[in-house]
Amino acid sequence: MTLRLYINHFWLLNKHHRSSSGCKAPSRTRSPMDSSFLLALVAVALPVLLHLLRRAKKPRGKLPPGSLGLPVIGQSLGLLRSMRANTAERWIQDRVDRYGAVSKLSLFGGPTVLLAGPAANKFVFFNSALASQQPRSVQRILGDKSILELMGADHRRIRGALAEFLKPDMLRLYVGKIDGEVRRHLGECWAGRRTVTVMPLMKRLTFDIISLLLFGLGRSPLQDALANDLARVMEGIWAIPVDLPFTAFRRSLKASARARRLIAGITRETRDKLERGEASRSSDLIACLLSLTDDTGAPLLSEDEIVDNSIVALVAGHDTSSILMTFMVRHLAGDPDTLSAMVREHEEIAKSKGDGEALTWDDLAEMKFTWRVALETLRLVPPIFGSFRRATQDLEFDGYLIPKGWQVFWAASLTHRDAAIFHEPAEFNPSRFENQSSAGAPPCSFLAFGAGPRICVGMEFAKIETLLCCKEDTFARDPMPSPLHGLPIQLEQKASPCP
């Protein structure tokens, strides 16, 4: 830009010189004075231009240690291989041991800064200059109007709308529905069987619960179609976003489009029911979102926003909860002491209930030990391994520059398995959480539900879902944890307690 200004200035001077000398057309010869002026211009402008180019390329600060690796590929393949081999925590920790709590690398095509430790987590979750960064495949499949993609006022508006559905007063109304689904599921899929495979059963249970509460869908061909589409959606969310025939990403896009049309149809039907008085704000998520208005009385959310965020709620409320419950079962199968303590807690609650009487919100509040088991499971096997943010401006952390546009990556295991934070971190010990939900650890150390303005809006709902003889201890991340063979276990009928 500076060179262009010099040249323009030179051209104007020559134009003025030609005009004042009465020239009618540009001369093909240049005077010695013109040539000297041009050489002087170049001599001045070239160093300025080179300085600007160097300044544009060279970051204004000290980059973290580490290497960006090969172009595009970077360290992505190494991380993915370690996740599938269940060594991702070790892979991340090796980088921290080598470079420290702040290091640079390249993941999924972008320069990235890996941050470790409670202070780093606080920086990630509470810094407004770090935007949520989802893989491109996630954005295309789940939509660009979801809570995962929005920032600022739009994010607060969507989050506030979802929080209306998930606030305690509303959740109290859903406990009976969830208890009914669990009872039906246990009777159909568990009772009278000697062996079951836990993971697929938990996925179906949580899907039945979430589709009932979000859309009012009971067991039906429509629900089955949505379940099949959700399975296809999940296959492509973390796939390479290449939209070609026969790829998982293409199948996921098509399944997402079908699910989107189905939910849009449910949204229109629910709007009609609300107008006729056949549904209320507390009927389900769609009814709740349609009932919300802004200060002018206009709908708070558009139909596209309702559809996109319903799909996100469907994925979040189904997948992470089923993973948590599966790994709780996996641990309890090999820990008779913890299992016995949980059974005693449930039996105490059962004594106060009549035959067939549903659990209530107050009953859930008594399941303190069960929830501690869930939290300890989340500490050791967090469903979300980590996630990305994107720097919207140049930032500094711990003396290092994070350039604008770079990714910032955090991983839960870096604090969840830190011996300086959690004593004997490899040991399963629910008593860590007796006093407070974060086990007395420093703030931003226990990250099962995130932290800050983007802390999981469905945390209380996940708690409700969770509360309501395979010895192999192996699982892989793809990218979420999945137990080997779906976790087959043997069932034993428990004898009724003595009166």
Order of helices and strands: HHHHEEHEHHHEHHHHHHHHEEEEHHEEE
The largest β sheet comes out as: 5 strands, mixed
Number of domains: 2
Strand numbers in spatial order across the main sheet: 1-2-8-5-3
Radius of gyration: 29 Å
In CATH, the architecture of the largest domain is Orthogonal Bundle
| Total strand segments | 11
Which overall shape is indicated by the principal axes computed on the Cα atoms?
Answer: globular
- Mean pLDDT over all positions: 81
- Enumerate how many helices there are, as a single number: 18
Give the CATH superfamily of the largest domain.
Answer: Cytochrome P450
Q: What is the CATH C-level name of the largest domain? A: Mainly Alpha
- State the end-to-end CA separation: 89 Å
Structural class: alpha+beta
Strand content: 5-15%
* CATH topology label of the largest domain: Cytochrome p450
Percent of residues in helices comes to 40-55%
Description:
It is a single chain. This protein has 499 residues and is of the alpha+beta class. The protein has 2 domains: 2-21 and 35-57, no CATH class; 140-490, Cytochrome P450 (Cytochrome p450), CATH 1.10.630.10. The chain is 54% helix and 9% strand. The chain has 18 helices and 11 strands. It has helices spanning 2-20, 32-57, 76-84, 88-99, 118-126, 136-142, 152-166, 168-189, 198-215, 221-237, 248-276, 285-291, 303-332, 336-351, 361-365, 368-380, 413-416, 459-467; strands at residues 102-107, 110-115, 130-133, 195-197, 386-391, 395-397, 400-402, 407-411, 475-477, 481-483, 488-490. It has a 5-stranded mixed beta sheet with strand order 1-2-8-5-3, sandwiched between helices. A two-stranded antiparallel sheet has the order 4-11. It has a two-stranded antiparallel sheet with strand order 6-7. Strand 1 and strand 2 (110-115) form a beta hairpin. The radius of gyration is 29 Å and the shape is globular. Mean pLDDT is 81; it is low at 1-30, 37-44, 48-56 and 469-478.
